[in-house]
Design a protein that fits this description.
Blueprint: H1 3-8, E1 10-11, E2 14-15, H2 16-28, E3 40-45, E4 48-53, E5 56-58, E6 61-63, E7 69-73, H3 88-110, E8 117-125, H4 128-131, E9 144-152, H5 157-170, H6 172-179
Antiparallel strand pairs: 1-2, 3-4, 4-7, 5-6, 8-9
Length: 190
C-alpha cells in the first residue's frame, strides 16, 4: 500500500492518517502528550458504589465529554453484596482486557495489519485471607492474571504473537498492573 493510500485508510476502525497526525503533533509539541484522567466515586451502601467519569485534561487543555459515564460496582452475594454490578477486581480485569485490545488494534493499524476480530478471556486469582487480614503473608490483590486472546487476522501464526506483544508493549493499564504505580491517598471530612 502506498503511503498516501495508507494515510487515508481506515484499518481496524482506526483512521490511520489521523493516528499519524497525532503522533507528529506530539513529536513537535511534547507537552500535549500529558493527560490526566479523573473519576468521582460515591458509596451507595454495603459493597455498592458508583464512579462518574466526565472531564479530563489532555492535549494541553481541559476536555469535556458529551455526556458523563457512570460505572457501577458491587460485590456478589457470597461476598455480602447485592450483585448489581461487576466488582472492582472484575473492573480491573475489564480495564486490562480493553486496554490490551485497544493498544494491539491501534498499533497493528499503524503497521498496516488488518484484524477482523479480537476476543479475550481473563482470569485472576485472589485469596481472601489477604483481604480479610487473616494472613499477612497472603497478598490482598491478584496473585496472578491469565489473559488468552483469540485473533482473526490473515497473518502467519508467528505474527499473531507479535500482534499480542504490541498490546503488552504499549498498554498503559498493562504497564500499570505489571510495573506498579505510586498511589497517594488522603482523607478529609465531608
Amino acid at each position: 500500500m502506498a503511503t498516501a493510500q495508507k494515510l487515508s485508510a481506515i484499518i481496524n476502525g482506526v483512521m490511520v492518517g489521523d493516528l499519524f497526525s497525532t503522533i507528529e503533533a506530539i513529536k513537535s509539541r511534547s507537552a500535549i502528550a500529558k493527560f490526566k484522567y479523573r473519576v468521582h466515586n460515591q458509596w451507595a451502601g454495603a459493597g455498592q458504589n458508583k464512579s462518574t467519569v466526565d472531564t479530563f485534561y489532555g492535549a494541553g487543555q481541559e476536555q469535556a465529554r458529551h455526556k458523563p459515564f457512570v460505572i457501577e460496582a458491587d460485590e456478589p452475594a457470597i461476598l455480602l453484596g447485592k450483585d448489581m454490578a461487576a466488582n472492582p477486581t472484575e473492573h480491573l480485569l475489564h480495564a486490562l482486557a480493553a486496554c490490551l485490545t485497544t493498544s494491539m488494534v491501534y498499533h497493528a493499524a499503524a503497521r498496516g495489519i488488518e484484524i477482523e476480530e479480537v476476543e479475550s478471556s481473563l482470569e485472576g486469582d485472589i485469596d481472601l485471607h489477604g483481604f480479610l487480614g487473616l494472613n499477612r503473608n497472603v497478598r490482598k490483590g491478584f496473585q496472578g492474571i491469565r489473559v488468552n486472546f483469540k485473533i482473526k487476522a490473515n497473518v502467519p501464526d508467528e505474527q499473531l504473537q507479535e500482534i499480542v506483544q504490541l498490546g503488552m508493549g504499549y498498554s498503559p493499564v498493562f504497564d500499570s498492573v505489571t510495573n506498579g504505580v505510586p498511589v497517594s491517598v488522603k482523607a478529609q471530612r465531608l
